[in-house]
Amino acid sequence: VRSYRSDACDVRCDQSIFPLHKFPRKSLDLSSLCIGMWRFTRATLRERTTSIHSNRVVKSLCSTTKGKRFQHDDALAVQLDYYMSPQFAGVASALVNNSYGSKGLDISFLPTCPVGTEQANVRRHQDANPGGTTVGTVEQNIFVPTLAADPSLKTTAVAAMFAQSPLCIASLKDPVAGSLKIGAHEDTVELMKRIFPSHEVVASPRSSKNTDLTSGELGAIQAYTTTEVPALRRLLGHDPVVTPLEGLGGAKLGYGQVVFAADECLLEGDKRAVVQAFCEATFEGWALAIRHPEQAAEMVKEAKQMLGLDDESNDHWYPSAEFEVEMLQKCNEHVKGTFEGDRYGVINAERWSVANDWLLKGRSPSKNFGLDPHVWQPPKK
């Protein structure tokens, strides 16, 4: 086990989460903390503009969080729906620049989970840690049907990183030309069957999807225009056939990378303010990523080293800095669509409800089902 130097490094040994507590700047022997712990390093990308010490006072653009003080045991746990990558560049930027800490947040990241289990993981963690706050991310087209099928999950969306889902299918020939065998993630099979009723849709592992396509095992794969598509272009030497799902046959998938929280964390008080502060730091991070994509790509690499979240050894990445910057820039375009007033990440309640109607086949339980439209909104004019 190596020793690492720490610049306001945060480390806690825990079997289920990887929290971030402040240590003084000195050499750390990780063997004294936890044998076999996920590696955690922090190198300064540029001079920090914020103090490395948490002042526990939220300096928020959002008036509801301004002046709030959080208790030391009021930890924030985050369940990402994918491992750390350019699609979470805003999170990476906020993490590397200690934006979460500067807003008084004691932040942790839950391990990468199987597809479709994000809400269940958030509910389980919140129930086990009622004194803290738990948030997660997932697509609206997964979040809403999952909540409708199991209201006991008690989770509510508050913001979104992407204005539109980048979900598509990638194939080597036009799907209109004939029937294809489409490989989809487990949690998206039913959606794919609905959109492609004349094709065979099967559950397939996301870790080998590009190989399954190029080898002929599958005729098409569930893909994202931000990720697999640019990777396949480099692998094949030309663009694959890309069929975006938004709008296809009237499909309305809604927002991508939705930020949601356990319901009890959205009641008035410190927990609600913690969620707002998380959104503030995250979307400030996205603003930086939009302005400086090359620098943000480096921050993603640093955040991956800091967290060590499972990268599942998948085949849909291309090993080049150019690919990572292109992916990040494609993500940035989706984030730009969420800008309203003075901030990124805003969900339009009407758009949310229109997508819900399609996703739930007109049987939405209530207006704005699954959404609290007041947590992350610009100030009223």
Automatic annotation (TrEMBL):
Pathway: Cofactor biosynthesis; thiamine diphosphate biosynthesis
Gene Ontology terms, MF aspect: metal ion binding; transferase activity
The reaction(s) this protein catalyses: N(6)-(pyridoxal phosphate)-L-lysyl-[4-amino-5-hydroxymethyl-2-methylpyrimidine phosphate synthase] + L-histidyl-[4-amino-5-hydroxymethyl-2-methylpyrimidine phosphate synthase] + 2 Fe(3+) + 4 H2O = L-lysyl-[4-amino-5-hydroxymethyl-2-methylpyrimidine phosphate synthase] + (2S)-2-amino-5-hydroxy-4-oxopentanoyl-[4-amino-5-hydroxymethyl-2-methylpyrimidine phosphate synthase] + 4-amino-2-methyl-5-(phosphooxymethyl)pyrimidine + 3-oxopropanoate + 2 Fe(2+) + 2 H(+)
Lineage top rank: taxon: Eukaryota
InterPro entries: NMT1/THI5, SsuA/THI5
Residues annotated as domain SsuA/THI5-like: 206-296
Keywords: Iron, Metal-binding, Pyridoxal phosphate, Thiamine biosynthesis, Transferase
GO BP annotations, alphabetical order: thiamine biosynthetic process
Self-association state and partner proteins as the record states: Homodimer.
Function summary: Responsible for the formation of the pyrimidine heterocycle in the thiamine biosynthesis pathway. Catalyzes the formation of hydroxymethylpyrimidine phosphate (HMP-P) from histidine and pyridoxal phosphate (PLP). The protein uses PLP and the active site histidine to form HMP-P, generating an inactive enzyme. The enzyme can only undergo a single turnover, which suggests it is a suicide enzyme.
PANTHER family: 4-AMINO-5-HYDROXYMETHYL-2-METHYLPYRIMIDINE PHOSPHATE SYNTHASE THI11-RELATED
Similarity field: Belongs to the NMT1/THI5 family.
Name the record gives this protein: Thiamine pyrimidine synthase
Organism, as annotated: Attheya septentrionalis
